[in-house]
Structures are given as C-alpha cells and as structure tokens.
C-alpha cells in the first residue's frame, strides 16, 4: 500500500512533467516570435506553479531554478529584458535542468547540482552578462537519443468516475442475482463461475471507489483564510488548528458537505468563541482556539469542529424553542440537554441577538442536517457551558455502496442504512410498557419509544397515531433501535433478515416525493427493496405521536 508521501510525490511528478512539456513547447513559440505574449504569460505561470509545488515538497534547488526563471520571464514580459542572445541559451539550459531534476525526483535519485546555472540566471536578472563557454559544444549522442517520457498518472473528470461507479453498481446487483440463482439451482459449475464473478466485481467495485477518494485536506486547508476573515469581522482573535488532512473520503461526499462545514466553522467563530473582553472576564486566554480535524471510526469518516468558547446555553435554547412554538413549556421541561440541542437544527432557528455579516439571517444549522441526511450521515453534538462545543459530522466513506440491515414487515423486505442503526433487540412483552399512549422500553438507561413500522408505512392523513396497547404483543418482539439527531426510536418489525451491502438507486417520479423512502435497491433474489429514510420516519413519529 502506498504511503501518503509516495502519493504526494506521484502527484507532484504528474504535474511537473506536464509543466515541463508545456515549457518546451512555449519556449519554441517564444524563440520564433520573441513578442509572443500568450506564450510568455504561460511560461511565467508554469514557472510560478512549479516553484510553489517544488518548495512545498522540499525540493529546494528545483524551486530555486524555477523561481529565477519566473523572475526572468517577468522581466521579459515587462520589457526590461529581451528574449535574445545569450539569454535564450541560458533559459533553454534552465528548462533542460528542470527536466533533469524532475526525472531525478521520479527515480528517487540525487538531484543534479544547479549552482553554475543559478549563477548565470542571477546575473541575467541583475542585467549582467552570463558566463558561458567560449564555443557551443556540438550535440552529443546522448542528447536528436533523448527519451520522451509520459506521466504514470492521468487526470479524469469526476463525472466519468460517477458514470463508471453507476455501471459497477448495476454489475453488483446482477452479480448478486446470478449468485443467488446458482445457489438455488445447485449447479457446481455455475456456482463456481458466479463466485468468481463475485470476487472480480468486488475488486472492481472497491477499485473504482478508491479512485474517487481524496484527502480531506483539499477542503480543510481552505479554512485558515475563512477563520481569519470571520474573526476579523467579529473583532475576535482566533487560532485555527488542522489535523487529519490525509484521511480519505469520496470526493462527492466532500463536495456535498462543503457548505455545511463552512457554516459550522463560521458559527463557531461567530457564536461559540467569545470576544477578547468576555474571555478576559471568564479567566480565559484572549486567543480563542478552533480545531478542525478528521479521523476514521470503523467504516465512517468523522469531521469535527471544536471550539473553546462559551458552549451551548441549554436553557436559552429551551426558551427559544418554546417561543418559536416548536414545543410546549411542559414538554420542554422533560427533555434532556441533547434533545434540547436538537432544536438548533430546526429550519430558521437562530440564537443570534442581532444580524451581522455572518449570523442572524435565518440560515441556521438546518443546512448542516439537510446535507448529512442526503448522505445518510449523522451529526453529534457535545458541549459544556464555559468550556466549548464540538460538532461531529459522521460520514460514510462512499455513497455508492452502503451497509444496510434488511428487515421484514408484512412479508416485504425493507433496507435500513446501518449508519442510523443502534442495535437490535428481542423483547418480551414484560420489557415493554405503555407511557402516555406510546410503547416504551429502556435501553442503556434511556427510555426508548417503540412504534410498529407498519404503522409508519401505512400512515395517512393528519390525525395522531392511535393510543398504543400491549394487547397485541405476544412472544418475543423484534425491535430495531435507530438513532437520528440524538433521538432513539424503536421500530417494531416482523423479523430481521440479514445485513448486507446495497447499491441505492433513486426513486423515479412520482415515488420520489414519498419522504419515508430514501431510494430503492435490488436484492440478489431479484426482489425490489425500498430503502427506509430514518430521519423522515423519526420526524413522522415525533409529529404524530399521541
């Protein structure tokens, strides 16, 4: 398995060889026409980019040669130097030297010395004549036999990878059907072929998924400027710490959560971290600290936004929720702090006291939840008054294939994404009670409401659910405990089938308007299976509970 250093080196090589080829082409154009503006501009840009990349990788000499050539092309562009005479020869020597250095990097060899070349480039920059050999030596055999090299890396448009992944998804569905058929027919030859197809398609699937992975750093590294600008607007002093930039995730997932992460970071600076005066009064350092980090947890990627600010004022959120009509005073009094924090993610909910450039405009944390719901992700919140707050985005590594638990209700299978499942329980009727017309059990010292899944699926109209009764509970009850927005809900099902990876396809019109389903998948038996949308099921239960 490649290390991150190897991957970065390969990426550098791919771009550097591409730059080198472009330099040679544009130099030839410039030699034919010294006033060729576009070629000159492109040479300046290429040298600038190569300089930055080389310095970032620690290739000092390569970066210095590119820097001197960049300066020289800048002088030519401004008319202070002309592309003629000895200058042309030194520039060509410089580009050749860059090529040799780049090839040395690719071969992990010691980089050739550039001392004499740098001296001549420095003289040309100062307007002095370069020190050259008295006569140009004829080309050696080593030089008409120069090898032409191509990069080992290619750039692929994301939409091409998307299309390839969709095709692999179709293959996986058919593969499962073939394997199931082979098992049913009990044909050894067909079964062996089906199992071979299973292994190949599995490797292909993960290879395509791997090709779409990028380091989280491509997004995280954009935030120092964001934090600086927001802190300046809010008259606050904030230090940002980044970690986990090498953690790999599907590029499309990163794209989808970009706005959500931006909102969380701005929110942390605007609402979380106090002003310098407030921090002094609280006995804190004037400099606020914000941490943006990525890490892995099992098959998930966690991105955390953590600040050392004032924390969430639970009582203030409780009052605001009652004021907004999101809950009653009586109901709010019985909610724990995490249930209260969940109101922060309601549309338009804001704790801002006044409208500023970055807050109080009615765009709340609901945008974060919407992004996560679309991915089948989760949002965790931890906060302590006066100490700070941490928001954790729990994301799948890939959105193409998801782990799911298959359950059965009225002889029909339904798939529940594993990301929203806590546990499965087999409960005796004595372990279930009725509280306020709702079935309830206790799990990990928490009261968990239970609702028959068929009741949610068959819901019609705006009437509340009927009062629950234990009269119909006979024998072990199969309960799937799901979790959304820190709210647990037990789904009563007929039986559990199995756990498996599924390829989710979107529902077509008009079925795509049904909130309870997040898509559809095809099982190995060829049977169509609806994928349940746990956030939608949870919201439906909350809105219609007795």
Automatic annotation (TrEMBL):
Residues the record lists as Phosphohistidine modifications: 48
Stored InterPro entries: Bact_Chemotaxis_CheA (IPR051315), CheA-like_dim (IPR004105), CheA-like_homodim_sf (IPR037006), CheW-like_dom_sf (IPR036061), CheW-lke_dom (IPR002545), HATPase_C_sf (IPR036890), HATPase_dom (IPR003594), His_kinase_dom (IPR005467)
Annotated ranges, domain HPt: 1-105
EC numbers, comma separated: 2.7.13.3
Enzyme class: transferase
PROSITE patterns referenced in this protein's UniProt entry, alphabetically: CHEW, HIS_KIN, HPT
Keywords noted in UniProt: ATP-binding, Chemotaxis, Kinase, Nucleotide-binding, Phosphoprotein, Transferase, Two-component regulatory system
Record-annotated Histidine kinase domain positions: 194-399
Pfam families reported in the protein's UniProt record: CheW, H-kinase_dim, HATPase_c, Hpt
Swiss-Prot/TrEMBL catalytic activity: ATP + protein L-histidine = ADP + protein N-phospho-L-histidine
Domain CheW-like: 401-543
Stated role: Involved in the transmission of sensory signals from the chemoreceptors to the flagellar motors. CheA is autophosphorylated; it can transfer its phosphate group to either CheB or CheY.
Annotated protein name in UniProt: Chemotaxis protein CheA
Organism, as annotated: Hymenobacter saemangeumensis
Lineage: Bacteria, Pseudomonadati, Bacteroidota, Cytophagia, Cytophagales
């Amino acid at each position: 398995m490649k290390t991150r250093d190897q991957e970065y080196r390969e990426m550098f090589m791919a771009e550097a060889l591409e730059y080198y080829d472009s330099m040679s082409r544009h130099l030839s154009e410039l030699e034919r026409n010294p006033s060729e503006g576009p070629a000159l501009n492109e040479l300046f840009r290429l040298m600038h980019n190569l300089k930055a990349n080389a310095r970032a990788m620690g290739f000092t000499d390569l970066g210095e040669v590119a820097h001197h050539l960049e300066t020289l092309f800048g002088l030519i562009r401004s008319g202070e130097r002309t592309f003629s005479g000895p200058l042309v020869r030194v520039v060509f020597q410089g580009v050749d030297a860059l090529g040799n250095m780049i090839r040395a990097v690719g071969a992990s060899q010691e980089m050739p010395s550039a001392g004499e070349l740098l001296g001549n480039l420095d003289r040309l920059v100062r307007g002095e004549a370069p020190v050259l050999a008295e006569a140009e030596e004829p080309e050696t055999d080593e030089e008409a036999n120069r090898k032409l090299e191509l990069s080992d890396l290619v750039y692929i448009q994301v939409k091409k990878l998307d299309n390839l992944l969709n095709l692999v998804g179709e293959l996986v569905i058919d593969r499962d059907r073939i394997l199931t058929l082979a098992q049913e027919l009990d044909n050894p030859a067909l079964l062996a072929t089906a199992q071979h197809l299973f292994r190949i398609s599995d490797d292909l699937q993960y290879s395509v998924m791997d090709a779409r992975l990028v380091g989280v750093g491509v997004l995280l590294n954009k935030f120092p400027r964001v934090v600086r600008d927001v802190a300046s607007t809010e008259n606050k002093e904030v230090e940002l710490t980044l970690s986990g930039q090498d953690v790999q995730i599907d590029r499309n997932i990163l794209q989808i959560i970009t706005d959500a992460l931006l909102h969380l970071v701005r929110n942390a600076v605007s609402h979380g971290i106090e002003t310098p005066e407030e921090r002094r009064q609280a006995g804190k350092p004037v400099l606020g600290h914000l941490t943006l980090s990525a890490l892995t947890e099992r098959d998930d990627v966690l991105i955390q936004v953590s600040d050392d600010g004032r924390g969430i004022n639970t009582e203030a959120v409780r009052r605001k929720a009652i004021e907004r009509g999101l809950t009653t005073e009586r109901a709010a009094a019985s909610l724990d702090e995490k249930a209260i924090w969940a109101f922060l993610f309601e549309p338009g909910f804001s704790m801002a006291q006044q409208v500023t450039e970055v807050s109080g405009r009615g765009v709340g944390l609901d945008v974060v939840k919407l992004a996560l719901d679309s991915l089948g992700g989760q949002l965790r919140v931890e906060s302590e008054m006066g100490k700070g707050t941490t928001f954790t985005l729990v994301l799948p590594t890939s959105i193409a294939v998801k782990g799911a638990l298959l359950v059965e209700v009225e002889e029909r299978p339904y798939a529940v994404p594993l990301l929203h499942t806590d546990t499965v329980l087999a409960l005796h009727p004595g372990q279930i009670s009725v509280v306020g017309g709702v079935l309830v059990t206790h799990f990990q010292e928490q009261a968990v409401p239970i609702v028959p899944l068929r009741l949610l699926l068959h819901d019609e109209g705006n009437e509340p659910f009927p009062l629950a009764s234990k009269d119909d509970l006979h024998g072990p009850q199969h309960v799937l405990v799901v979790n959304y927005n820190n709210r647990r809900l037990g789904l009563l099902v007929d039986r559990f089938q199995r756990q498996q990876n599924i390829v989710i396809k979107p529902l077509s019109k008009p079925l795509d308007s049904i909130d309870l389903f997040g898509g559809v998948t095809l099982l190995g038996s060829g049977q169509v299976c609806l994928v349940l949308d746990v956030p939608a099921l949870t919201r439906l239960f909350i809105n219609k509970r007795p």
